[in-house]
Design brief:
heterodimer, A: about 525 residues, mainly alpha, 2 domains, four-stranded parallel sheet, 26 helices, 8 strands, B: mainly alpha, Fumarate Reductase Cytochrome B subunit, about 60% helix
Chain lengths: ~525, ~300
Amino acid sequence: MERPRIASQGDLVRFLDQNEGIDPARLVPLPYPYEDWVDEPIKEITEDQRTRIEVGPDGVCGAQIPVPQSEEEKERLVASFLEGLRKLLTKENNWTFLQPLLLSMENCVKCQTCAEACPIYTGSGHMEMYRPTFRAEVLRKIVDRYIKPGGKLFPKLRGNDIELDWETLVKLAELSYRCTLCRRCAQQCPVGVDNGLLTREIRKLFSQELGIAMPELHQVGTVKQLTVGSSTGLNPAGLMDIMEFAEEDITDKTGLEIKIPFDVEGAEYLVLHNAGEFLSWPENLQAFAIILEAAGISWTLSSELVGYDSVNYGLFYDDIQYSRIALKHYEIAKKLGVKKIMMGECGHAHKATMAVADRLIPDSLRVRAESCLVALEDLVTSDRLRLDPSRNDFPVTLHDPCNITRSMGIIQPQRNILAKIAPRFREMEPHGVDNFCCGGGSGFAVCQSLNFPDWRTRVSGRVKFKQILEAFADSIEPETHKYVCAPCSNCKGQMRDLLTYYDAWERCGIMYGGLVELIVNAMADIPEGFLEWEFH
Amino acid sequence: MVGIGLLVFVWVAVIAFVLGCVLKGLHYALTPMHLRWDLYPVAHEPRRDHGGSYLEEKDWWTHKRRTSLAAEVGVMGEEIVLLKGVWQHNRSLWWGSLPFHWGLYLLVVTTAGLVVQGLGWSPPVLTSVLPWVAGVGGFLLLLGSAVLLIERSSSPKLRPYTTPLDRLNLLLLLAFGAASMAVVLAGGFGGAGAAVTSILRFRAPEVTFLLGAQMALGALFVLYMPYTRMAHFFAKYFTYHKVRWDDRPYVAGGPFSSRLEAALEYGMDWSAPHIQSGHSWRDVVTHIPQQDEKGGQ
C-alpha cells in the first residue's frame, strides 16, 4: 500500500483531508518465532456503522462520535469546539493544567526528537498521523489561526493555513485516542514539551465542552463508577457476593480461612483495588488478602460506592470527572479514619490518587497514600513472609506500568521483590523509567468496541509484544512456561488481548499476571501451586 | 542619519526584548498552581540514576526530603552546553543544532563583553579575546543555520513541520552569523566596541556599512525573539522546574493550601451535560450528578 506522503507544511494541512490506512506489512517486524506471522487485517467499519458513527483517518473507530444529522449541527459543533478552546486557555476553566498546556503549546521547536520515542508511531511503521507532534501541531494551528489575535494574517507564511470544519475536528478527536499518554515522548523532549499532555487536553476539551468522549471511559466508565459504584458495573451487593466467593476460593486453594475485611474504622490501610481485578483476576485480590493476613497487617476494603474501585478514568480525558472520583476516594478514607491508603496493582489509579491528586485534595480530606509495591517490598525484604523462591523457578520478566514508573518514579521496589522471589528474572529492554507502554494505556485496555481492539493488538501493543519475545528469547519454546509480571490491571487487560491475538500461550508458553500472585506462589507456608498455568 | 536610525532601532529592540521576556515570563509565572504532572527521572532526586522518586520509600512523608541543586545544575548544564537530549535521541539534527546554539551563545558573550567595555571596564584580556569570540561565534552561527536550513528544507521528518517563517528566521540568523564573521575578518571589530559605547550613551554610533548591517540584523533578531518559540531559552525553566521536576509534595497548611482553596473557588462554564456550568469548581466536583439530573446521563 502506498503511504500518503507529507512533503511540505502545506501538505500537513492537506493531510488531514486524506486517510492513511494501516498496512499490516509495515508494522514493526517481530522476532522468532513470529518472523512469518501474518497479521489479520483490522476489521473495516461497515457502511451501516459509518452512517451512525464517525471513523478516524486510519479507518479505526475509538471515540465513537455520532455523525451529525445536518450541516447546521456540524457548524454548531465547530463553534462549540472553538468556544471550548477559548475556555481551555482560561485559568477559571482550566487552572488544573493551564501552565503546562501553555508551555507545551508555545515552545515546541518541531525538532521531532520525540518521534522515535513513541511505540505507536514506530510500531505502526512510522505512520505520520501517529507522530507525537502531529495532533499537537493541528491543535496549535487552530489556536494560532482562530484564537490568537491577528491569527488570520499571513496564514501561509506563519503556517496557520488550516480551515476548521467538522471533518477536521473528527480527525483531531479520533487521533487524540491514538496516543496512550505514556509520556515517553515528553521524557525525550529537550525543551520539556509534553505532547501526551496536549493529547489529553484535546480529549478534555471535547469531553468538557462538547460531551464527546470514548464511551468506555465516560458513559460506562466514570459516569457508571460515580452512580453505580464501579466502572465494571459492580454494585455493593454484587461486591459482597464476589468477596464470599473469593474467601471460599482462598480456602480451597490454601486451606486458610480468611475473612476479607470491609469498612474497618481506624485500620492501618484502606486498600484500593481496581475492581476489574475482582471480576477478571480474582486471584490478585486473593493474593493481597493472603499476604496482608500472613503479615498481620490491619487492613480494610470499603463497601461504599466508588470506594471499592480505585479506577479513575477521568485521569485520561476529563478533569471534572477525575476530580469527583479522586475526592470521593479521599473522602471515604477520611471517613473510615484509616492511617493510610494502599494503592493496589493499578498504574493509573496510583497516579490519579497519589500524584495528580496531591494538589487537589483539600486539607480537611488529607490521608497519606502509598504504593502497594513499596509496602510489599517492606514485607518481602524484611523477611516477614517465609519465602521459597525455588517455587518460582521459571523465566519471569517485568512490565513497567508507565503511570507508576515514568510518572511517579517507583522503579526499584518491584525489582527488589522479584530479586527475592524470582530466580530466573530478566529485564525487558528498555525498562524502568524508559519502558514502553503496553499499548493499552490511557484506558484503551478496556475499549472493546468496533475495531479498536484490533488496533490495540496490532499497532499500539506491537512494540511491547516484541519486547516480551526478546526478553524470553533464550527459552521461547512453549514447553517452558514463562511469566510476564504486570503489576497493573489495565496493563494486564492489554496483555491478555495481546497474548491471545498472537497466540503466545500456545506458541511460546507465555502467561501474564500480577506481582502478588508470584509472591504468594513463593510463600513457603502456602501449599504449592497458587499460580495456575491456565491462560485467561 | 544611519547612526541615529541604528541607535533608535537597537534601543527599541532591547526594550522589546526585555518587555517580551518579562511579559512572557509573567504569562507563565502568574498561571495558577496546576495539578502535579512530574516526569521521571527528576534531576534533583537522589534516586535519579534509575529514575526513582521519594515515593519509593516506605512512609515517605515521615522522611526528610533530600534534593540536589548541584544535580539539577549538572543536568541543565549538559542540556545547554552539549544539547545532550538531541545528541541522544536525534543525532542527525545535533550536528547543525550544536554549532547554531554555540554561535548564539558566543555572540551573546561578545555583546556582553562589549557592553562591559562600554561601561568603562576594559581589561586587556577582554579586548584581545572578544574578536575571537565574535568571529568563532559568527562562523558557528553561519554553519549551524546553514545546516539547519538544509535539514529543515530536505528532511522528510522536518520539512512538513517547518513554516516559511521558520526558514526566514534561519536565513536571518545565517546572515547575522555571516555578517558577524565578516566584521571580524575585515578588521572592523574595533568599531563594534565604539558603536556599543555610543549606543550605551545614547549617541548615534559611527559604523561602516558592514558593521551597521550586522548590528541591525542582530537587533532585529533580538526584537522578535521573545515573541516566538525561540523563547524556549527561558521557557525551559518553567517546563523543567515548574512541571517536569516539580515533585514538591503537598503539605497541609503549607504554600499549596491557600492556592488550592483559591483555585477551587474559580467559576467554570464548561458546557458538557455532566457539568453544572456557572458554579465554582468546589461545587461542581463535590456534586455527583445522579441518573435523573443533568449529568447523570
